[in-house]
Amino acid sequence: MSYLEAKNIKIIYRKSPDDPGLVAVENLNLSVNKGEFVTIVGPSGCGKSTFLMSVDGLIRPDQGEVYIEGKKISSPGPERAVVFQEFALLPWRTVESNVAFGLEFRDIPPNEKKQTIDKYVKMVGLAGFEKHYPHQLSGGMRQRAGLARALSVNPEILLMDEPFAAIDAQTREIMGTELLRIWDREKKTVLFVTHSIDESIYLADRIVIMSARPGRVKEIIDVKLPRPRRFEVKSSMEFVEYRKRVWQTLEEEVKKVMDYGTDESG
Amino acid sequence: MEQTNQDKILPEVDAITARKTFRGRFFRNERWLIGAATIVLFLVVWEVAGRKNWVDQTFISRPSLVVRAAIQMLTSPDFYGHLSVSAIEFFVGFAAALLVGVGFGLFIGWYKNLEYSFEPFIMALYSTPRDALIPLIIIWLGIGLYSKMAVVFLGAVFPILVNTVAGIQNVDPVLIRAAKSFGAKERAIFRKVVLPASLPYMIAGIRLGVGRGLIGFVIGEMYVAEKGIGFLIMRAGSVLKTDDLLFLVSIIAGVGVLSNQLIRKFEEKVSRWRFERSV
Predict the structure, then answer these.
(1) Average pLDDT, stretch A172-180?
(2) Could you give the percent of chain A with pLDDT greater than 70?
(3) Residues of B contacting chain A (CB within 8 angstroms)
(4) Does residue B234 share a domain with residue B101?
(5) Do residues B44 and B135 both lie within one domain?
(6) pLDDT value at position B8?
(7) Alpha carbons B130 and B146: distance in angstroms, whole number
(8) Strand, coil or helix: A204
(9) Does residue B173 lie within any of the structural domains?
């Protein structure tokens, strides 16, 4: 068994208990190795974010199980942390206090806590902004804080739910490279949901392409680009090849979604 | 790091306000200087209108006469008896409203089913003009202090309650989700996310509640009472003592303005994050 294993996941979205519901994810199987960077792409509404939340234990699948090191998960746990698309920072807390948030649910001596906060605030490049409130920061900086908060609890698995979707395109390029730098140092297992094909290739060891709703794994592509990767790799021939391959698989699914005209995301 | 954003965060030095010239001082205090000037102008016109008998003084009095009435009242021990009665009515009624409004509001805001069951009552009482209930309250509690406390309470409690509930229910679900993801249990989610997130709503409710509470004791005393500021207003009105009446009304207005300012200061203190705009 792999480090992280999702077996036969089925998730139904219901508005109320008697709602027949919408099957968001069905028959989803996925294995992830320790330390692997896996990106998940798929058309809008294919349930990729929903699936990610079920790996965190925030959503319970209607069928199937998620296992980590062979242990069934049923709720959020200390070995996993989420970086949210909407940042989900507490607006009344400063950067350092937001980074401390995750640590407040663990038994950690205060001085060690302080060191941890400092370490990750520095690592994400927010030194000097410790006392700023989220609304005083740009989108990119807010997500740096979100990343620092997730890293500070020292999880083994980082679940990133379209973390750069609300960030402008240029900043997004930089954030990707910085994420790789941090990943290289911290050696986390990462599940990274994205809409961006380029992002899915640039970051990944493996790309998981999901089908239109109900979401399943349609194809998995190994990305053999050398690491550490730099921005320039995006204009290499190999990268362009990957882009073609991903799009070939994805196009059909995206068209399906357009046909039944959904506007739901996630 | 993004250059534009760094620029935004750097402390912005306003050239005009930094200067210690007359112009600088004027612009820094522009708001209240202009406000004060308008008030002075108004008082002058009022005084002149009274003295020149443009309008009958029985109706509009005059600032100087109001001041004389004020001095008279403020030097009579009798007045303080009335003032303290009103103050006790207001503070006891309002304190109870605060306690019940916030406490009960937090409770039913957090437990949805409770809200469903209490909502019809709350909405009905919130919408009832409480002045219509005064006769009933007096039948129950008599013409003394208790009935006025009840009127103040009824006026203040609903805005506080309804806003507290709204605050809790408007907490961004993503924040709760994030807290759960980090392993927060229900109590911690309530304390660290829900409570601070709904604080601005509560304060808005409290501010509304103060206003309604102030109306409460005045109306209550005007309806039937033997003591209090509202009672004095009624009495002054019935004998055409416009000077006394205007002074008494201005006391209530003053208390209203003052409490509003106090609440604002409190708000700035507890939710500094909302006021600390891009420094």
Answers:
(1) 92
(2) 97
(3) 1-2, 4-5, 8-9, 172, 174-175, 177-184, 188, 192-193, 196-197, 199, 271, 273-274, 276-279
(4) yes
(5) no
(6) 45
(7) 15
(8) coil
(9) yes
Are B130 and B164 members of one domain?
Answer: yes
Q: What is the average per-residue pLDDT within A71-76? A: 94
Q: Is residue A153's pLDDT more than 50? A: yes
Q: What average pLDDT does the segment A84-110 reach?
A: 94
Has residue B60 been placed in a domain?
Answer: no
| Number of domains comprising chain B | 2
Residues A207, A201: Cα–Cα separation, whole Å: 7
In angstroms, how far is the first alpha carbon of chain A from the final one? 28
**Is the peptide bond prior to A17 cis by the omega test (within 30 degrees of 0)?**
no
CATH of residue B180's domain is 1.10.3720.10
Closest CA to A96 of A56, A64, A128, A66: A128
Do A53 and A216 meet the contact criterion of CB atoms below 8 Å apart? no
Q: For the segment B213-237, what is each residue's pLDDT rounded down to a tens digit?
A: 999 989 999 988 889 999 999 999 9
Query: Residues B31, B108: one domain?
Result: no
Spatial contact of A40 and A194, defined as CB atoms under 8 Å apart: yes
B246 in the same domain as B228: yes
Average pLDDT, chain A: 92
Whether A28 and chain B come into contact, CB under 8 Å, resolves to no
Cβ–Cβ under 8 Å, residues A243 and A54: no
Question: Are B174 and A88 a contacting pair at CB < 8 A?
Answer: yes
Tell me which residue range forms the domain holding B135: 65-275
Last residue of a domain, one of B32, B55, B78: B55
> Quick one: closest CA in A to B2, which residue?
A171
Min CA distance, B157 vs chain A (Å)?
A: 27
pLDDT for the residue numbered B3? 43
User: Which residue in this structure is represented by tokens 């009103």?
Assistant: B86
Whether residue B44 is found in the same domain as residue B69: no
Residues B33, B28: Cα–Cα separation, whole Å: 10
Residues B41 and B173 in one domain: no
Domains of chain A by start residue, with CATH: 4-79+155-259 (3.40.50.300)
Would you call B193 and A140 a contact, using CB atoms and an 8 Å cutoff?
no
pLDDT in tens, A43-56: 988 899 999 999 99
Same domain, B123 and B99: yes
Mark which of B27, B55, B83 sits at the end of a domain.
Answer: B55
Mean pLDDT by 10 residues, chain B (279 residues): 43 51 75 90 93 87 92 93 94 96 93 86 86 90 92 94 94 95 94 93 94 91 90 93 93 93 88 63
Domain presence at residue B177? yes
Residue B159 domain flag:
yes
CB-CB neighbours of A20 under 10 Å: 7
In angstroms, what separates the C-alpha of B279 from chain A's closest C-alpha? 8
